[in-house]
Amino acid sequence: MVTRSPVRSAPAAGPARTRLPWWALALPTLAFLSLLLLILHPAHAQATSTEASALGALFDRIGGLLARVSG
What we know:
This protein is mostly helical and about 70 residues long. Helices cover about 50% and strands about 0% of the residues.
């Protein structure tokens, strides 16, 4: 027995209506504006010194360890 699948003869008329959640536009806009502010005011984007931060000291130790292992 042969069964046939239904075939649409024409696409649906009219524009497709989709609704985006509020964050789908808000988050990219917020990211763009924050990057734009960093470009306009680069003084606010300064990094902390690596000697003062614990994270910087950790990265220095990891870098020294990798240098000893590879060299």
